[in-house]
Amino acid sequence: MSRRIAVVSGGLRQPSSTRLLADRMAEAVERALREAGEDAVLDVVELRDHAQDLTAALLTGFATERLTSALETITTADGLVAVTPIFSGSYSGLFKNAVDVLEDGALEGMPVLMGATAGTARHSLALEHAVRPLFSYLRTITVPTAVFAATEDFGQAAGSTTGDVVPLGARIDRGARELAALVAGRPPRGAAGPRDPFALTVNFEDLLGG
């Protein structure tokens, strides 16, 4: 069975350490799913490419065709890898904008592997006090392991400068296995998709009958 994993990167720059972490996490999830006997398709959504559309959607209430396609990629996936840079102790504004334009319940029940990047390890707890509560509010299923990477963690063969004895690669693999187990144990999510703002919410015959 083929499983589709949406990979959301909230990085603002190119090249981006956030995108780098998202790619490493997504590749690990793909490996873990294949080890579980499942094929995996990765669909990457780089929020930087949709920054103007996200702002317009928040102001007008309508999403462009390109943004709608990106949101559908996220909401119809079997699992989600979501990575944000940490600014001022929390997720980035761009990352929150993407959440704010989702329909209520669009991610309900979706397994999520969270990740975050920052300049120093002092911001690592932002995953637990900001990002995990956000995904809990969205009624997703977050895996126990969240992956934080400070700049100093990239390229480390073992440990980090904080004295963490678990290297970044091992943390990624652990989180990936947890997400893969959740995805493989559930039926395909199917194409729920974002709500059409012009769709009828009642039967047309009922409307004609008053």
Enumerate the spans where pLDDT stays under 50 for 5 or more consecutive residues.
none
Number of strands: 7
Based on CA inertia axes, which overall geometry fits? globular
Order of helices and strands: EHEHHEEHEHEEHH
Helix share, percent: 25-40%
Largest sheet: 7 strands, mixed
Q: How much is the radius of gyration in Å?
A: 18 Å
**Structural class designation:** alpha/beta
Structural notes for this entry:
It is a single chain. By secondary structure, this protein is of the alpha/beta class. 39% of the residues lie in helices and 20% in strands. It has seven helices and seven strands. Strands 1, 2, 3, 4, 5, 6 and 7 form a seven-stranded mixed beta sheet that branches. Helix 1 crosses helix 6. The model has no long low-confidence stretch (mean pLDDT 89).
Key terms:
alpha/beta; 20% strand; 210 residues
Topology of helices and strands:
Elements: E1 2-9, H1 17-35, E2 39-46, H2 51-60, H3 65-75, E3 79-87, E4 90-91, H4 93-100, E5 111-118, H5 126-137, E6 141-142, E7 147-150, H6 168-184, H7 204-208
Parallel strand pairs: 1-2, 1-3, 3-5, 5-6, 5-7
Antiparallel strand pairs: 3-4
Short description:
This protein is α/β, with parallel strands linked by helices and 210 residues long. Helix content is 39%, strand content 20%.
